[in-house]
């Protein structure tokens, strides 16, 4: 999210009864909302200690979640070529909701940490508030310049004392990706500008388009993929969601949150969204089998779609501007002070998050840069994706990034966002009323916040 973390002086977390959490997913991405993205396996590494590869090289270990794409984009290989004495090994947990509790435990005990640890945007406020003493100040790392990042992205990982404990990798400017072939069969326009005009300025208009789609929908398809994806997008366009600017948990009393929940529940009641939870095997199959026509779509989602689609889906997707600008997903890289290779880790993190590498990562993996200077680079400006053919995705997402509202994010955003999606609106697709779903979601969230 283009989010601002709460002022640390106003954050309270005594007795594990804090102020609220999960910015959705990334997964970001996500997850994004969410726990975003499917993961990749540990790439090996010759020495589990992360100290020496056995070849006279220093092995830098990274603890990551999902597919962050550094290896897939060839960045590790490039860095190792530039630094022959360095070997890089990543250790990946598939879903952030499994990765983050372990990270928090390792930071709390100051043990078992990798040289580099990723942090999802939904968790960054809690890490800044409670764990900054365990992490290096990366504003002082070699080659790091604050001006290389969007102001709000830099501030998300910075304490009130000015310590920056994470360098931003990506952000998740929102769009709507849609299947041109399914839209055409349902009698809807397929030109991306005409499509965007159908729902411009109002998420309720998106639901109205879904009702039109349903009238002539190809058999066995829904308008959108899931209730979780829809509510994540709507909430991602709000400046204030789960916390107010003073640090108070307000998700139950915030009209914007209830409005997003009710609108998503309406779509679920009308059968406009699939009945799956995102980033689960059943949901993956709906991608592979062309079971929905549209999806809330930050840039990283295109990479996920590509990975789960059949080859014949290539070129059938397009990208339209979302009803309102928003953000879903985005991550940071941090360096624990207790790491075995702190100085080399800081150099690696500074290099991986530098503008040139952010641009390469987007051109290969679809992780949209948090460095605005990249938006005019050829790797971003001229980027294409197999799923969307000649669609100028770089220009579309760059323009969306400029419009993202600055959000308030809190330490427990992830818990709240996931609860509203996976313990809330999804229940409406299973026969629960919106009122029952809201009650279940809020009880689940409050119980988790009290732990």
What does this structure look like?
By secondary structure, the chain is α/β, with parallel strands linked by helices. The protein has a domain at 38-171 and 330-386: D-Maltodextrin-Binding Protein, domain 2, CATH 3.40.190.10. The protein is built from 17 helices and 15 strands. It has helices spanning 75-82, 96-109, 121-131, 151-156, 180-185, 192-199, 203-215, 227-236, 255-269, 281-288, 299-308, 342-352, 355-365, 378-381, 393-402, 413-422, 434-449, and strands spanning 3-5, 25-27, 29-31, 58-65, 86-93, 116-120, 167-168, 170-171, 175-179, 222-224, 292-296, 317-321, 331-334, 368-369, 407-409. The longest helix has 16 residues, at 434-449. Residues 1-50 have low confidence and may be disordered.
Q: What key phrases describe this protein's structure?
A:
four-stranded mixed sheet; globular; alpha/beta; 17 helices; disordered N terminus; D-Maltodextrin-Binding Protein, domain 2; 451 residues; 14% strand; five-stranded mixed sheet
Summarize the structure.
This protein is α/β, with parallel strands linked by helices and 451 residues long. It has helices spanning 75-82, 96-109, 121-131, 151-156, 180-185, 192-199, 203-215, 227-236, 255-269, 281-288, 299-308, 342-352, 355-365, 378-381, 393-402, 413-422, 434-449, and strands at 3-5, 25-27, 29-31, 58-65, 86-93, 116-120, 167-168, 170-171, 175-179, 222-224, 292-296, 317-321, 331-334, 368-369, 407-409. The strands form 5 sheets. It has a 5-stranded mixed beta sheet with strand order 5-4-6-13-7, sandwiched between helices. A 4-stranded mixed beta sheet has the order 10-11-9-12. A two-stranded parallel ribbon has the order 1-15.
């Amino acid at each position: 999210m283009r989010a601002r973390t709460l002022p640390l002086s106003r954050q309270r977390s005594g007795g594990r009864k804090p102020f609220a959490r999960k910015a959705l997913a990334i997964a970001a991405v996500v997850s994004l909302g969410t726990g975003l993205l499917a993961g990749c396996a540990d790439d090996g590494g010759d020495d589990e200690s992360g100290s020496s590869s056995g070849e006279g090289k220093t092995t830098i270990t990274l603890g990551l979640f999902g597919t962050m794409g550094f290896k897939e984009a060839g960045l590790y290989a490039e860095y190792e070529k530039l630094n022959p004495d360095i070997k890089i090994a990543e250790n990946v947990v598939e879903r952030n909701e499994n990765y983050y509790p372990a990270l928090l435990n390792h930071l709390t005990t100051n043990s078992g940490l990798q040289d580099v640890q990723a942090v999802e945007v939904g968790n960054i406020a809690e890490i800044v508030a409670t764990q900054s003493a365990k992490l290096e100040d990366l504003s002082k790392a070699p080659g790091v310049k604050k001006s290389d990042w969007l102001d709000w992205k830099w501030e998300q990982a910075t304490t009130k004392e000015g310590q920056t404990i994470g360098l931003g990798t990506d952000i998740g400017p929102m769009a709507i990706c849609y299947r041109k072939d399914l839209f055409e069969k349902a009698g809807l326009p397929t030109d991306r500008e005409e499509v965007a005009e159908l729902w411009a300025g109002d998420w309720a208009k998106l639901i109205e388009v879904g009702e039109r789609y349903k009238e002539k929908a190809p058999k066995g398809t829904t308008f959108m993929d899931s209730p979780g994806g829809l509510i994540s997008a709507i909430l991602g366009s709000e400046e204030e969601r789960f916390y107010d600017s003073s640090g108070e948990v307000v998700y139950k009393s915030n009209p914007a949150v209830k409005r997003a929940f009710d609108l998503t529940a309406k779509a679920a009641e009308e059968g406009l969204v699939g009945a799956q939870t995102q980033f689960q095997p059943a949901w993956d199959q709906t991608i592979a089998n062309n079971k929905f026509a549209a999806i809330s779509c930050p840039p990283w989602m295109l990479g996920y779609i590509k990975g789960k689609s059949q080859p014949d889906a290539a070129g059938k997707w397009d990208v339209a501007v979302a009803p309102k600008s928003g953000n879903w997903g985005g991550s940071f890289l941090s360096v624990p002070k207790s790491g075995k290779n702190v100085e080399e880790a800081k150099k690696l993190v500074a290099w991986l998050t530098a503008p040139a590498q952010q641009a390469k990562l987007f051109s290969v993996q679809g992780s949209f840069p948090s460095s605005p200077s990249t938006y005019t680079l050829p790797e971003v400006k001229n980027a294409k994706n197999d799923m969307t053919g000649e669609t100028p995705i770089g220009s579309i997402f760059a323009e969306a990034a400029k419009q993202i509202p600055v959000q308030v994010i809190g330490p427990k955003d992830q818990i709240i966002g996931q609860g509203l999606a996976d313990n809330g609106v999804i229940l409406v697709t299973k026969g629960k009323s919106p009122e029952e779903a809201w009650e279940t979601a809020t009880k689940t969230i409050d119980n988790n916040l009290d732990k």
